[in-house]
Amino acid sequence: MAVTVETLEKLERKMTLTLPVGIVQSEVESRLKKLARTVKMDGFRPGKVPMNVVSQRYGYSVHYEVMNDKVGEAFANAANDAKLRVAGQPRITESESSPEGQMAFDAVFEVYPEVKIADLSTAEVEKISTEVTDSAIDKTLDILRKQRRTFAQRAQDAAAQDGDRVTVDFEGKIDGEVFTGGKAEDFQFIVGDGQMLKEFETATVGMKSGESKTFQLAFPADYHGKDVAGKTADFMVTLKKIEAAHLPEVNEALAKSLGIADATVEGLRADIRKNLEREVKFRLLARNKAAVMDALVAKAELELPNASVQAEVNRLMEGARADLKKRGIKDADKAPLPDDIFRPQAERRVRLGLVVAELVRANDLQAKTEQIKAHVEDLAASYEKPTEVLRWYYSDNNRLAEVEAIVIENNVTEFVMARAKISEKSLSFDELMAQN
After folding, report:
1. 3-111 belongs to which homologous superfamily?
2. Contact by Cβ (8 Å): 169, 186
3. Which of 54, 183, 249, 358 could make a disulfide contact with 115, Cβ separation 3.0–4.6 Å?
């Protein structure tokens, strides 16, 4: 088989393949004979269908299969021999001119680009650090206490205040009409927890059991209920019961109820610190990794294979449709989603993937077995039964592959950080946790 390769433009190549007609015909005849032994057709016993009938019925489809297989195999072998790194699937068409006794095909395809990464010592990366303070531990303790609060009914003449649980009846009207979701009886909420819109909570503060009040409430323009978003409603609320919250003391009993092995206040605080430091570690790693990847993209020079970008566009589009479907959008799979919406993100992902792959290849930054094991153990440590989480990861190669990808990215991050110009920036615990 003869093969020629020509460069069309940038990453696009054209390969001409030729196959002897005899090889194709021989394979078609072989498959038809095999098919004749098992095929079932009306009027014939199994295995007794004449070859000319089998050929007439199945000849075209078998010939098509053979052509696909043989040309695909020839292309793969030729690309391998020429040491071509093919991106995406080739577009194969039959050539207009074929040598005698041969079938010729043109395969147009893209190759992966050469990736040039500039001197990383000139890259600038902002490195974030955060300390877990006693204040962060105190705030976490307050959250844990709130999650375990109990409520006791207040005296009849007590007024509702922040932190109380209130039971109310309410009715809201827009233009004199009750709207969907605007009426409820024996509805409970905790004042100040943000479950209700602020105007509703403010109206409730200071009321006593048995009292009623009317007030206006302006729904925000971006309110989740589209029928009332941006509109003003007239509400009447009747307060039926007020219950004061009681938070558990920070003591050994609380530590014990939380399942802390060292059931002391010191043991509880140490456990909280350990969990917060683990969360901070993962968040800092993600934040600093993103900064490194931005720097890498800025320092890389390469052409993008259109096939890879389009494949990524399709993946992003499928994800968007799945998300729409999950939200209950009708005919989400048919929703018009132009490629242009996803192309910038797809191009960045492909660019970053190629740059990272080149850096990993050139500097031996592949994930080591012990690194994967350590990362899985790190992930499992935050769960109640770490051994079950370990078993869950190691029972599925796809899950381990995801961990391997993360470890490789971590290796790349460390590699770049060790060479780039680093500017240190400290964030408070609250600032770090507030960021997505």
Report:
1. Trigger factor ribosome-binding domain (3.30.70.1050)
2. yes
3. 358
Point out which residues pair with 15 in neighbouring strands.
Answer: 5, 107
Residue 329 tokens read as: 């959008």
Looking at this protein, which amino acid is placed at residue 97? S
User: pLDDT per residue over 120-168, tens digit each?
Assistant: 999 999 999 999 999 999 999 999 999 999 999 999 899 999 999 999 9
- pTM for this prediction: 0.70
φ, ψ of residue 202 in degrees (nearest 5): -60, -40
Q: Residue 93 forms beta bridges with which residues? A: 106
Provide the residue type at 299 as one letter.
K
Which positions ≥6 away from 213 have C-beta within 8 Å? 203, 207, 236, 237, 239
pLDDT digits (tens, 9 = 90+) for 255-276: 998 888 888 999 999 999 999 9
Q: Is 210 left (phi over 0), alpha (psi -120 to 50) or beta?
A: left
CATH topology for 149-246 is Chitinase A; domain 3 (3.10.50)
The β-bridge partners of 3 are: 17
Query: 3-state class of 421 per DSSP?
Result: strand
Cα separation values, 412 from 227, 290, 351, 352, 374, Å? 49, 11, 15, 12, 17
The gap from C-alpha 291 to its chain's centroid, in whole angstroms, comes to: 19
What's the CA gap between 341 and 31, in Å, rounded?
Answer: 47
Domain ranges of the chain: 3-111, 149-246, 259-434
Contact 67, 17 (CB under 8 A): no
Number of C-beta neighbours around residue 75 at 10 A: 21
